[in-house]
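Journal club prep — side note

Before the paper discussion, L.F. wants everyone to see what a predicted structure for a comparable chain looks like in C-alpha coordinate form. Sequence:
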Amino acid sequence: MRVTEIFHSIQGESTYSGLPCVFVRLTGCNLRCTFCDTRYAYDEGDSMSVSAILQQVGRFECGLVEITGGEPLYQEETPSLARELIRQGRRVLVETNGSLNIGVLDPGCVRIVDFKCPSSGECGQTDWDNWARMSPSDEAKFVIGTEEDYDYAVDVLKRRVRGGSPGFTVNFSPVFGRMEPRVLSEWILRDRLSVRLNLQIHKYVWAPETRGV
Protein backbone atom coordinates (compact mmCIF):
# COMPACT_ATOMS: atom_id res chain seq x y z
CA MET A 1 0.00 0.00 0.00
CA ARG A 2 1.10 3.60 -0.46
CA VAL A 3 0.96 5.60 2.77
CA THR A 4 1.37 9.36 3.16
CA GLU A 5 1.61 9.40 6.96
CA ILE A 6 0.70 7.56 10.15
CA PHE A 7 0.29 9.67 13.27
CA HIS A 8 -1.33 9.82 16.70
CA SER A 9 -3.58 12.79 17.42
CA ILE A 10 -6.96 13.89 18.69
CA GLN A 11 -9.85 12.96 16.43
CA GLY A 12 -11.07 16.26 15.03
CA GLU A 13 -14.36 15.28 13.42
CA SER A 14 -17.41 12.97 13.60
CA THR A 15 -19.09 11.74 16.79
CA TYR A 16 -15.66 10.46 17.84
CA SER A 17 -14.35 14.03 17.98
CA GLY A 18 -12.02 14.68 20.91
CA LEU A 19 -10.81 11.11 21.36
CA PRO A 20 -7.20 9.98 20.90
CA CYS A 21 -6.90 8.31 17.50
CA VAL A 22 -4.25 6.86 15.19
CA PHE A 23 -4.58 8.13 11.63
CA VAL A 24 -3.44 6.13 8.63
CA ARG A 25 -3.45 8.56 5.72
CA LEU A 26 -3.28 6.71 2.42
CA THR A 27 -1.98 8.23 -0.81
CA GLY A 28 -4.08 8.93 -3.88
CA CYS A 29 -7.50 10.37 -4.61
CA ASN A 30 -9.87 10.23 -7.56
CA LEU A 31 -11.40 13.66 -6.80
CA ARG A 32 -10.03 17.20 -6.62
CA CYS A 33 -12.29 19.14 -4.26
CA THR A 34 -11.84 22.91 -4.22
CA PHE A 35 -11.44 23.07 -0.45
CA CYS A 36 -9.23 19.99 0.00
CA ASP A 37 -6.83 20.49 2.93
CA THR A 38 -4.72 17.38 2.28
CA ARG A 39 -3.54 17.91 -1.29
CA TYR A 40 -0.15 16.55 -0.27
CA ALA A 41 -1.85 13.13 -0.06
CA TYR A 42 -2.57 13.14 -3.79
CA ASP A 43 0.85 11.71 -4.59
CA GLU A 44 3.19 11.89 -1.57
CA GLY A 45 3.83 8.61 0.19
CA ASP A 46 5.88 5.46 0.66
CA SER A 47 5.05 1.82 -0.05
CA MET A 48 4.22 -0.22 3.05
CA SER A 49 2.84 -3.72 3.56
CA VAL A 50 -0.32 -4.24 5.59
CA SER A 51 1.77 -5.93 8.29
CA ALA A 52 4.14 -2.95 8.47
CA ILE A 53 1.20 -0.56 8.83
CA LEU A 54 -0.28 -2.71 11.60
CA GLN A 55 3.06 -2.74 13.41
CA GLN A 56 3.40 1.05 13.27
CA VAL A 57 -0.21 1.57 14.40
CA GLY A 58 0.38 -0.80 17.31
CA ARG A 59 3.20 1.33 18.71
CA PHE A 60 0.70 4.01 19.76
CA GLU A 61 -1.34 1.63 21.96
CA CYS A 62 -4.58 3.30 20.90
CA GLY A 63 -7.89 1.53 20.32
CA LEU A 64 -9.32 4.01 17.80
CA VAL A 65 -7.92 4.10 14.25
CA GLU A 66 -9.03 6.13 11.24
CA ILE A 67 -8.11 5.19 7.69
CA THR A 68 -8.27 8.32 5.58
CA GLY A 69 -6.61 9.96 2.60
CA GLY A 70 -6.72 11.13 -0.04
CA GLU A 71 -9.38 8.57 -0.76
CA PRO A 72 -8.74 5.31 1.13
CA LEU A 73 -10.95 3.18 -1.14
CA TYR A 74 -8.74 4.21 -4.06
CA GLN A 75 -6.37 1.43 -2.92
CA GLU A 76 -7.49 -2.18 -3.31
CA GLU A 77 -5.91 -3.38 -0.05
CA THR A 78 -7.81 -0.93 2.17
CA PRO A 79 -10.61 -3.41 3.03
CA SER A 80 -7.97 -5.95 4.10
CA LEU A 81 -6.21 -3.36 6.27
CA ALA A 82 -9.49 -2.38 7.93
CA ARG A 83 -10.39 -6.02 8.53
CA GLU A 84 -7.04 -6.76 10.18
CA LEU A 85 -7.35 -3.73 12.46
CA ILE A 86 -10.81 -4.90 13.52
CA ARG A 87 -9.42 -8.37 14.24
CA GLN A 88 -6.94 -6.73 16.59
CA GLY A 89 -9.88 -5.38 18.56
CA ARG A 90 -9.62 -1.77 17.36
CA ARG A 91 -12.49 0.56 16.48
CA VAL A 92 -11.94 1.46 12.84
CA LEU A 93 -13.22 4.59 11.12
CA VAL A 94 -12.92 4.91 7.34
CA GLU A 95 -13.45 8.38 5.93
CA THR A 96 -14.35 8.29 2.26
CA ASN A 97 -15.37 10.86 -0.34
CA GLY A 98 -18.54 8.96 -1.26
CA SER A 99 -17.67 8.32 -4.89
CA LEU A 100 -16.73 4.65 -4.45
CA ASN A 101 -18.67 1.65 -3.15
CA ILE A 102 -18.45 1.49 0.65
CA GLY A 103 -19.90 -2.02 0.57
CA VAL A 104 -16.39 -3.46 0.11
CA LEU A 105 -15.60 -2.61 3.73
CA ASP A 106 -16.10 -4.92 6.69
CA PRO A 107 -19.45 -4.13 8.37
CA GLY A 108 -17.52 -3.68 11.61
CA CYS A 109 -16.07 -0.43 10.26
CA VAL A 110 -17.58 2.97 10.94
CA ARG A 111 -17.91 4.42 7.45
CA ILE A 112 -17.89 8.22 7.36
CA VAL A 113 -19.19 9.18 3.93
CA ASP A 114 -18.73 12.67 2.52
CA PHE A 115 -21.67 13.44 0.24
CA LYS A 116 -20.27 16.23 -1.92
CA CYS A 117 -22.00 19.61 -2.19
CA PRO A 118 -21.79 21.99 -5.19
CA SER A 119 -18.89 24.19 -4.04
CA SER A 120 -16.64 21.11 -3.82
CA GLY A 121 -16.61 20.99 -7.62
CA GLU A 122 -17.17 17.23 -7.41
CA CYS A 123 -20.88 17.08 -6.63
CA GLY A 124 -21.63 14.89 -9.64
CA GLN A 125 -19.22 12.15 -8.58
CA THR A 126 -21.25 10.87 -5.62
CA ASP A 127 -22.32 7.23 -5.64
CA TRP A 128 -25.80 7.68 -4.19
CA ASP A 129 -26.21 3.93 -3.74
CA ASN A 130 -23.95 4.43 -0.71
CA TRP A 131 -26.86 6.10 1.11
CA ALA A 132 -28.72 2.77 1.14
CA ARG A 133 -25.56 0.87 2.08
CA MET A 134 -25.09 2.79 5.33
CA SER A 135 -25.78 1.22 8.72
CA PRO A 136 -26.73 2.85 12.06
CA SER A 137 -23.05 2.99 13.09
CA ASP A 138 -22.05 4.90 9.95
CA GLU A 139 -22.03 8.69 9.52
CA ALA A 140 -22.82 11.01 6.62
CA LYS A 141 -21.00 14.30 6.16
CA PHE A 142 -21.96 17.34 4.11
CA VAL A 143 -19.17 19.92 3.85
CA ILE A 144 -20.83 23.33 3.68
CA GLY A 145 -18.97 26.24 2.10
CA THR A 146 -21.85 28.35 0.81
CA GLU A 147 -25.58 28.86 1.26
CA GLU A 148 -26.06 26.92 -1.97
CA ASP A 149 -24.28 23.96 -0.35
CA TYR A 150 -26.55 24.21 2.68
CA ASP A 151 -29.70 24.29 0.54
CA TYR A 152 -28.42 21.33 -1.46
CA ALA A 153 -27.78 19.27 1.70
CA VAL A 154 -31.19 20.13 3.14
CA ASP A 155 -32.82 19.08 -0.14
CA VAL A 156 -30.97 15.76 -0.04
CA LEU A 157 -32.33 15.11 3.45
CA LYS A 158 -35.86 16.03 2.42
CA ARG A 159 -35.75 13.65 -0.54
CA ARG A 160 -33.95 10.74 1.07
CA VAL A 161 -35.05 10.70 4.72
CA ARG A 162 -38.31 9.04 5.66
CA GLY A 163 -39.83 8.98 9.12
CA GLY A 164 -37.75 11.85 10.50
CA SER A 165 -34.37 10.09 10.70
CA PRO A 166 -32.03 8.51 8.14
CA GLY A 167 -30.99 5.88 10.68
CA PHE A 168 -27.42 7.19 11.00
CA THR A 169 -25.70 10.38 12.14
CA VAL A 170 -25.67 13.28 9.67
CA ASN A 171 -22.89 15.86 10.09
CA PHE A 172 -22.92 19.38 8.61
CA SER A 173 -19.31 20.59 8.43
CA PRO A 174 -18.44 24.25 7.74
CA VAL A 175 -15.48 24.75 5.43
CA PHE A 176 -12.78 26.14 7.71
CA GLY A 177 -12.12 29.82 6.96
CA ARG A 178 -14.97 30.04 4.46
CA MET A 179 -18.19 29.28 6.35
CA GLU A 180 -18.66 30.74 9.83
CA PRO A 181 -19.75 28.02 12.29
CA ARG A 182 -22.10 30.52 13.93
CA VAL A 183 -23.91 31.13 10.64
CA LEU A 184 -24.26 27.43 9.90
CA SER A 185 -25.46 26.83 13.45
CA GLU A 186 -28.14 29.49 13.07
CA TRP A 187 -29.37 27.95 9.82
CA ILE A 188 -29.57 24.50 11.42
CA LEU A 189 -31.55 25.88 14.36
CA ARG A 190 -33.80 28.00 12.14
CA ASP A 191 -34.74 25.03 9.99
CA ARG A 192 -35.13 22.61 12.93
CA LEU A 193 -32.70 20.12 11.40
CA SER A 194 -31.75 16.95 13.25
CA VAL A 195 -28.11 17.13 12.17
CA ARG A 196 -24.82 17.49 14.02
CA LEU A 197 -22.59 20.56 13.66
CA ASN A 198 -19.20 19.05 12.86
CA LEU A 199 -16.21 21.32 13.53
CA GLN A 200 -12.63 20.38 12.68
CA ILE A 201 -11.43 20.86 16.25
CA HIS A 202 -7.83 19.95 15.41
CA LYS A 203 -7.68 23.21 13.43
CA TYR A 204 -8.59 25.11 16.59
CA VAL A 205 -6.15 23.19 18.81
CA TRP A 206 -3.24 23.49 16.36
CA ALA A 207 -2.54 25.90 13.51
CA PRO A 208 -4.88 25.02 10.60
CA GLU A 209 -2.06 24.13 8.21
CA THR A 210 -0.23 21.84 10.68
CA ARG A 211 0.38 18.33 9.36
CA GLY A 212 0.45 15.18 11.45
CA VAL A 213 -2.34 16.27 13.80
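L.F.'s comment for the group: Residues 99 and 125 are 6 Å apart (CA to CA). Keep this in mind when we get to the figures.
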